[in-house]
Amino acid sequence: MPFIREGMEQGDRAFHIINPSLRSEHAQRIAEAGIDTARAEVEGQLEVIGWDEAYLRGGSFNQSAMLSLLPVLLNNGRTRGFPITRFIADVAWVLNEGAVDSMLEYECRVNLALPKAGDIVICSYDLDTVDAAMVVSAMRTHPIVLIGGIVQRNPFYVPPEELLKELGERESTETGWPASA
Predict the structure, then answer these.
(1) Which of 73, 81, 119, 146 would staple 85 via disulfide (CB 3.0–4.6 Å)?
(2) CA separation (Å) from 99 to 5, 51, 150, 175?
């Protein structure tokens, strides 16, 4: 919440993708942090959408559709006059979809695209719902991590090009078919 509150106070835009069933709880936590959620939503400074409106549009995860949607979502902030969008995405949906490798590939491709945008993007993993193997795999896609309230360089980070190659080789080994790039 301090990250969200700080951004709102600085005039940044907050954009969150969450479990749609937790929308009211999410809004309540933001309000409890001292943010007027109704005002912020009306003014366009806060936008909260569910997984079904982003990652799972069309009923399932479509990496290319999401990679196309992400710049639109981020550019909407600049179009509305906000200097930076602080984008937070809860990625627990991947557990229901069984799309961990797809998500890792997506996160690598996002890393290749994001430095151009200048916005702050945080992928949020609930450590009570994901297993250690998924956390370590996901951490490999993030150059910076927030663990226990401390922002730090990630010692497990693998550059996107290298991790994409590894994922392709893993797919090739599992299927017996050459990996596509």
Answers:
(1) 119
(2) 32, 14, 28, 16
> Considering only 48-52, 104-108, 131-135, 175-179, which range has the smallest mean pLDDT?
175-179
Instruction: Count the Cβ atoms, other than its own, within 10 Å of residue 145.
Output: 19
Which among 6, 13, 46, 45 has a CA at the least distance from the CA of 119?
A: 13
3-class DSSP state of 180: coil
Q: CA nearest 104: which of 133, 138, 74, 132? A: 138
In angstroms, the Cα distances linking 38 to 11, 15, 79 are 16, 14, 21
Inter-axis angle of helices 100-113 and 63-79, to 10 degrees?
A: 40
pLDDT tens profile 109-163? 888 877 576 888 888 887 787 777 777 888 888 888 887 778 899 888 999 899 9
Helix 100-113 and helix 132-139, axial crossing angle in degrees, nearest 10 = 20
Q: Is 24 left (phi over 0), alpha (psi -120 to 50) or beta?
A: alpha
Q: How far apart are the first and last CA of the chain?
A: 38
Of 97, 22, 105, the residue nearest 60 (C-alpha): 97
